[in-house]
Amino acid sequence: MLKTPLRKVEKSLKMALYFISLNGLVYIIQTLFLYPVWLHRYFIELDVGLGLLTLLFWFICLMSSPGFIRKPKNIEFLEIMKLIDPVQLCPDCEIVRTPRSRHCGTCNQCVERFDHHCPWINNCIGINNHKYFMIFVGLLIANLFLNFILTALNLYLMIFHNDYELRFDYITFISKDIKDNKFVIWASSALVLIITFFFIFPVILLFTVHIKNFCQNRTTNERFGGKKYGKPPPAAEGSEQSSDYSATTSLLAEEIVKEIGEPIDHSDRRIPCLYNCADMWCSK
Ligand SMILES: [Zn+2]
Ligand SMILES: [Zn+2]
Fold first, then answer.
1. Distance from Cα 105 to the centre of ligand 2, integer Å
2. What is the DSSP-derived secondary structure letter of residue 270?
3. Cβ partners under 8 Å of residue 129, min gap 6
C-alpha cells in the first residue's frame, strides 16, 4: 500500500531561489573579475552558453507539469468508491491510482510515474519532465566541471607562472587597479572553486542514480521505496464485480489517465538497459 506523508510539506520556492542565487553569484564573480583574465574568448563564450542552457532546462523543469493525474470529469468519486478497492484510490485527488503513480505530499497531487519531489526546482519529477530533469542535471555537471577546471587553470598559471593579464577589459565601472589586483582575482577564484567543488559531488551522485534508474526502467521512488507492482485495481468487497465494473474501469482509464502500466520486462533482450532507457525517455 502506498503511503502519503502525515505532515503536509508546504511547497516553497526557497530552495530553488537558493540554488539560482548561488549560481548567479558564481556568474557575477566570473563576469566582474575572472572572465577578464581568462585565457581565451572561446572559454568565456562556452561557459556563458552552457550556463544559459542549464538555466533554460532548470526553468523548464520548474514550470512543466510532471504528469499530474487529473480528476475525471464525468464520474463522481462516490461512484468510483463503490466499485474500486479504496486502497487503490487517492482521496485527495479523487482518482484511481495507476501502478507507477504516487501522491506527492508537497504538491498535494498524484503524479504519473512519480520519481521524487525536487526542492531545487520546486516541482515533482514525473513522467512528463523526467527527461528534462536528466538533461538539466547533465548540463549542470558539465557546467560545474568547466567552471572548476578553467578557474583552477587560471589560478595555477597566476600563482605558479605569474601568467595573468587583463585580456578582456569590458567592465568600465570598476577601476583597473581592482580588476588587475592579484588578491581580488585570487579571492574570486577561491570562492568559485569552493562553491563549484561542493556542488559537483552531490550532483554527480544524483546523475548516476538517475542513469541507473533509466537503465532499469525504475524511478527513484520504486528503487528506494521498495515498491512492488500490484495487480490491477480490484473491485471493492461486496460490490458486484460485473459488467458494471469493467465498463466503469474502462471509462476511468479513458477519463482519468492514459493508463501507464507496469514497466515492460526487457530482460530477454540482448542489451536490456537500452530498451529500458528508451521506455523511460519516450513514454508520456
Ligand atoms: Zn493524490
Ligand atoms: Zn511534488
1. 7
2. S
3. 60, 61, 64, 65, 66, 67, 123
- Which residue in 93, 118, 124, 277 is the catalytic one? 118
Q: 68 alpha carbon to ligand 1 midpoint, in Å? A: 9
- Ligand sitting nearest the alpha carbon of 89: 1
Instruction: State yes or no: pLDDT of 5 exceeds 80.
Output: no
Say how many domains are in the chain.
1
Measured distance CA(183)–CA(9) in Å, rounded: 45
Would you call 93 a catalytic residue per the annotation?
A: no
Could you tell me if residue 174 is inside a domain? yes
Is 141 part of a structural domain of the chain? yes
Q: Using CA atoms, how far apart are residues 104 and 2, in angstroms rounded to an integer?
A: 11
Residue in this structure with the C-alpha cell 520504486, named with its chain if needed:
222
Q: Which domain holds residue 29?
A: 14-227+239-282
* Residue 6 within any structural domain of the chain: no
State residue 108's pLDDT score. Answer: 93
Q: What is the pLDDT of residues 160-202, one digit of tens each?
A: 887 777 777 777 777 777 877 888 889 999 999 999 999 999 9
Integer Cα distance of 209 and 226 in angstroms: 15
Q: Is residue 101 part of a domain?
A: yes
CA of 175 to the centre of ligand 1 (A): 57
What separation in Å is there between the alpha carbon of 103 and the centre of ligand 1? 4
What is the distance between the alpha carbons of residues 265 and 100, in angstroms, rounded to a whole number?
15
